[in-house]
Design goal:
By secondary structure, the protein is α/β, with parallel strands linked by helices. It contains 19 helices and 17 strands.
Length: 507
């Protein structure tokens, strides 16, 4: 079955930060793993360039929204490259093909009788581009995300009959308990639906930066309607001369942050139902990466710069850290200090040092050739079912759990080295066969964990597999004993070398 994974599209009102990198890395892990399984994969990311947040940011800079989009879309593309991300397409909502397809789908929703003219009045956050209910506000009239005071806005719009889809959405959730994960987010979305759905502004009258409403060009389509449709529109033009919609739709997994749950888990499926389009298979919600007690946000000024971290430590270290430090799906705190600790203790010492020691011992005791032996039963028992366990975690989008399954085996291999002490076995010729088995088990264990780690840390895994003389990345080979000895090892160097962090410049 084709596998279609998407990230949210990112506002170009600011440059990318680690929060953006987080979702993109997670999607890339899913895409890479599924390709290893031989699946037909399509991976989409991109930028959201219409609406009030972009317009306001451009006005502050004294440039047009188009100029701001052109400037920052490049930065998001560069971020994907810096993170070693393998997206198949990068969509921009200013793409003429996207805009034309949005107009077509919105016209279909209109023609199906789900649009009417009306007036909206409510608390509006220009940074969220969203009207807030009284229950969503903090401390009177503060946006819970951006911590800014909101004002009541009133506007004549075209409306989408969201309320019509309350019962169909309740039925969808009842029939597909895995439609939204994790469970607490499923419960949150269902509770929102059952509390009573209000019709939604489909257009904005006072904004001009957006997709014109096809039957009323005095208004533009509400930025969230425009943005949500990117997952569907991209397939129609992502590959020149080919429409991939029939092949990949419905999406397998939408990955999003918890702050946009309402749009993706409620409004999005209702829109698709209104247009007569099949709803996605799953919406997966992750939590926030927190600095202190707040979500990372350019507007709050509390960010870790992913370009700087990747430049200093490498993309693999950053990819590993965000999925290892915070359980995927939950909120969790990140910090430069936490990153350095993980880098030193787990990447450099546990994985990197294990690889260096193993290769060095094979070079010293067996002239650089991996011995031909059977895997040690003690190690084989601990590795039994590992690949299947990782498969299950990836299928359930439990990325931190999958990474932990692999890392437990890396820790086991380190204990094995200390228990067996190959350097002592090498002193006794009577232990030659035992030494062969120990060295083979170490090399084979490293090969298996590196194949499984490839989606998480592609460059490091490939380097180590190359040094082991075994470069097959297929998950069919990720089983201890699947590959025999006889490979000639190569040079590895340090996978995760010591990094000297630059001193802060004097004021």
């Amino acid at each position: 079955m084709p596998y279609y994974v998407t990230t949210p599209i990112y506002y170009v009102n600011g440059e990318p930060h680690l929060g953006h990198a987080y979702t993109t890395i997670a999607a890339d892990v899913l895409a890479r793993h599924m390709r290893q399984r031989g699946e037909d994969v399509f991976f989409l990311t991109g930028t959201d360039e219409h609406g009030e947040p972009v317009t306001q940011a451009a006005e502050k800079l004294g440039i047009t929204p188009r100029e701001l989009g052109d400037r920052n879309a490049v930065r998001f593309k560069e971020l994907a490259g810096t993170l070693d991300v393998t997206n198949d397409f990068f969509i921009r909502t200013t793409d003429p093909e996207h805009m034309a397809r949005v107009a077509e789908v919105v016209q279909r929703i209109h023609d199906n009788g789900h649009v009417y003219a009306g007036t909206y009045e409510g608390w509006y956050c220009p940074r969220c581009a969203d009207f807030k209910t009284e229950s969503e506000l903090e401390d009177g009239n503060l946006c819970p995300i951006h911590k800014i005071e909101l004002e009541i806005e009133k506007e004549d719009n075209w409306f989408f009959r969201l309320s019509t889809f309350q019962e169909p959405l309740e039925r969808l959730y009842a029939e597909r308990p895995g439609f939204v994960i994790p469970q607490n987010r499923y419960n949150e979305a269902l509770s929102f639906i059952k509390s009573g759905l209000r019709d939604l502004s489909l257009s904005r009258a006072r904004l001009k930066w957006g997709v014109p409403v096809p039957w009323d060009e005095s208004q533009v389509i509400y930025v969230w309607i425009d943005a949500l449709l990117n997952y569907y529109t991209a397939l129609s033009y992502a590959r020149e001369g080919e429409d991939l919609t029939e092949r990949f739709w419905p999406a397998t997994v939408h990955l999003i942050g918890k702050d946009i749950l309402k749009f993706h888990a409620v409004i999005w499926p209702a829109m698709l139902m209104a247009a007569g389009i099949e709803v996605p298979r799953r919406v997966t919600i992750h939590g926030f990466l927190l600095l202190g007690e707040h979500k990372m946000s350019k507007s709050l000024g509390n960010v870790i710069e992913p370009f700087q971290v990747a430049d200093l430590y490498g993309a693999d270290a950053l990819r590993f850290y965000v999925l290892r430090e915070v359980s995927f799906g939950s909120d969790g705190e990140v910090s430069p200090e936490g990153f350095e600790t993980r880098y030193t203790t787990e990447l450099a010492n546990e994985y990197g040092n294990l690889a260096s020691r193993t290769l060095a011992m094979i070079g010293r005791y067996r002239d650089g050739t991996v011995p031909d032996a059977e895997p040690d039963g003690a190690i084989a028992a601990d590795f039994d079912g590992l690949s299947e366990a990782v498969h299950r975690c990836i299928d359930d989008v439990e990325l931190t759990g999958g990474l932990d399954e692999i890392w437990q085996r890396i820790k086991r291999l380190n204990r094995y080295v200390q228990d067996e002490q190959p350097w002592q076995l090498a002193k006794d010729e009577a232990q030659a066969e035992r030494l062969d088995q120990v060295l083979y088990s170490l090399a084979e264990g490293l090969r298996v964990v590196s194949v499984l780690l490839h989606p998480f840390m592609p460059t490091s895994a490939e380097r180590l597999l190359r040094a082991l003389g075994r470069e097959d990345l297929s998950l069919e080979s990720a089983r201890l004993g699947a590959v025999g000895g006889g490979a000639q090892i190569g040079e590895l160097g340090q996978l995760f070398p010591r990094v000297e962090t630059p001193e802060p410049s004097a004021a």
